[in-house]
Amino acid sequence: MELNPQTNTGPGIDIKNAEKGMSPTKIAMKRFMKNKLAVASVFILLLIVVVVILAPFLTEHNPTKTNLTLIERPPSEDHLLGNDSSGRDNFARLIYGGRISLIVGFSAMVFTLVIGVVLGSISGYYGGKIDSIIMRACDLVLMLPFLVLCLTIVAILEEVNVTILVSIIALTSWPSLTRIIRGTFLTLREQEFILGAKAIGVSDLRIIFKHFIPNAIGPILVNATLMMATYIIAESALSFIGFGIPQPTPTWGNMLSEAQSLRILRNSPEAWIPPGLAILITVLCINFVGDGLRDAFDPKSNRR
Amino acid sequence: MIQYLIRRILVFIPMLFALTVIVFALMQAAPGDPFSQKMDPNIDRAIYEKQREALGLNDPIHVQYWRWVTNAVKGDFGDSLIYKGRTVADLIAERFSNTINLGIMTLLITIIVSIPIGIYSARHPYTPLDYGATTFGFLGLATPNFFFGLLAIYVLSIQLGWLPSHGTVSKPGIEGFELFIDKIRHLVLPSLTLGLAGTASYMRYMRSEVLDVLGSDYIRTARAKGMTENTVLYKHTLRNALIPIITLLGFEVGILLGGAVITEGVFQFPGLGTLFITSIGNRDYPVIMAINLMLGFFVLLGNLLADIFYSIVDPRIRYD
C-alpha cells in the first residue's frame, strides 16, 4: 500500500505537545504559517493590493480618459500596454481596474457573510419552523443557476453600479454559506457546553456570539475566502459580457470584453492577456489561502 | 425504497410550482409592459388601455399567473418583444439543440479526461504526473472560463488555425458525415472551455475518492485474499468511488447551463446562452422568463435524477 498511516503519527504527536495550552485559532494560525504555498499567496495578494492602492503613483494616465488619436495603439514607452478601442491607457486601466474588481469581490463576500451568519445562526440555533422556512428560501434561490439569476435581475434594473452589483451577487449567493453555517451550528447545538450555558441562563444572542461563532470560525473563514474568489470571477464574467460594471469604469472583466472584437483578440494580446492573468493569479492565490486555512483549521490534518 | 422515490418525486412538484412563481414574480418586477418599447408616445390613451385590456394586463395578478402557467405548460410563452412576429417557443426551439449538443460534448470531455487522470493520480500519488494533474486542477479552477476561451481562440484558432472559433457550421451545403465532423470541430473549443472547471474539480474528487476507498478495510481484505490488483481496482474500488462522482454530475446541470451563457458568448455560439444574453440586452422579458423557466426546470430535474440514482446505487443508505 502506498499510503502508510504510520508516518503520519510522528509529527502529529509533536504538534500536539507544542500546541498545548493554545487556543484553536492560534494553533490554526501556527499551522497556516507552515504552509509555504499559502503564505506565499498571502504575500502576492498583499502585493496586488498595494499596487492597486498606489495606482496614482504608478501611472500618470487617467484610466477613463479617452483619446481618439491613440485608438488601439500598440505598446510604447509612454503606454506600456498600448491603448484600448477608445484610446484609454491599458496599463492605467489594469491597475485601477484591480481596485474595482477587488472591491466588488471583497464587499460581496462581506455582505454574503453577514447574511449567511445571521440567517445561518438563526436557522441552526432555533431549528424548528424558522429553520425550515430559511432552508426552503435557500432552495428557492438555488433553483436558478447563479449567473442566470444575476443576469435576470440586471435585466430588470435600470442601471448597474458597484453597490448594486455587490448587492445582486450577495442576494443571489447567500444560500450556500447559510447552509454551511447552519450545519456547523446544528452539530454544536447538541454539545454539553451549550447545554451548560443555557442551563445557567445565558441569553441566546450571547450564546451565538460567544460560543457558536468562535467555534465555527474555521468553516466560516475558509468558505468566505473561497467565496471571494468566486465573486471576483463572477464580477469579471458579468462585466465581460457587458452586464456588470459599465464602461468607462475599468475592471479586469470589462477590459477583457474588448477582446470580443476579433481584431483586438488577434492583434493586441497585450491588451487582454494581462487583465486575464491578473484575475487568474488573484483567484489562484485566494484559493491557495482558502485551502491553507482549511488544512490549518481541520483537526484531522496534522500532517503537513 | 419505492416509498422514498415516490416521496422524492412528490417534492419535485411543489418545487416546480415555486419555480414558476419566482419566474412570474421576476417578470412582474420588470418595469414597463409589452408596449413600452414599441409604443409611439403620442398614441391615444384610450387605445392603449384597450390594448392592455385585450391582452389581459389589467386582470388580477393570480388570473394573469394562471394564464401564463397554463400557456407555458402547453409550450406557449407568448411573442418576443424584439424579433417581430416570432414566438418565444420558436426562438428557443431553434437554439435548443445546439446548447444540448454543447452540454453533451462538455460532459463527455469532462468524464473522459477527469476520471482516468483522477484514478492514475490516486494510484500513483506524489509522482510527477500526479503533481502535474494537481497543478492543472488548481489552474483550471482559477481560470475564468471566458479568459480560457479567448486564449483557446487566440492560440488554437488564430495562431495555429487548427479549429474554427465561431458558430456551429463553417459553410452551408455540406451534409452527411462531413456535416457531422464539421459540427464536432465547431464544438471542440466551446466544450473544452465550458468543461475546464468541471474537469479540474472532478479530477480532484476522483483522486480523493479513490484514495479514500483504497485506504479502507475491505480493500485490504480483498488484497489479503490474493486478488489481482486489477480486480481490486476495477471491481471494488471504482464501483465505490464512482458513486459520489456520478451523483455530482446531476448537480452539474445548473453549473453547466450557467456557464454555457458566458461560454456561448465568447464563441458567438448560437445556443440558448447567446439568446439569453441578447434578450437581457434588449430587455426582451418573455424570452428571458422562458429561458429562466427552462433552465430552472433542468436544474430541478438534474437534482431529482441525482437523488434517485444515489438511492439506487448505494444500498447502504436507508430512508425512513
TrEMBL record, chain A:
Keywords: Cell membrane, Membrane, Transmembrane, Transmembrane helix, Transport. It comes from the Bacteria. Residues 98-290 form the ABC transmembrane type-1 domain. InterPro entries: BP-dependent_transpt_permease, MetI-like, MetI-like_sf, Oligopeptide_permease_AppC, OppC_N. It is a multi-pass membrane protein. Belongs to the binding-protein-dependent transport system permease family. NCBIfam families: Opp4C. This is ABC transporter permease. The lineage of its organism: Bacteria, Bacillati, Bacillota, Bacilli, Bacillales.
Automatic annotation (TrEMBL), chain B:
It is a multi-pass membrane protein. Residues 96-306 form the ABC transmembrane type-1 domain. The keyword Signal does not apply. It comes from the Bacteria. Gene3D superfamilies: MetI-like (1.10.3720.10). The chain crosses the membrane at residues 9-30, 100-119, 131-156, 187-205, 241-267, 287-310. Keywords: Cell membrane, Membrane, Transmembrane, Transmembrane helix, Transport. One of its GO terms (biological process) is transmembrane transport. It is found in: Cell membrane. GO terms for cellular component: plasma membrane. Belongs to the binding-protein-dependent transport system permease family. This is ABC transporter permease. It comes from Robertmurraya kyonggiensis.
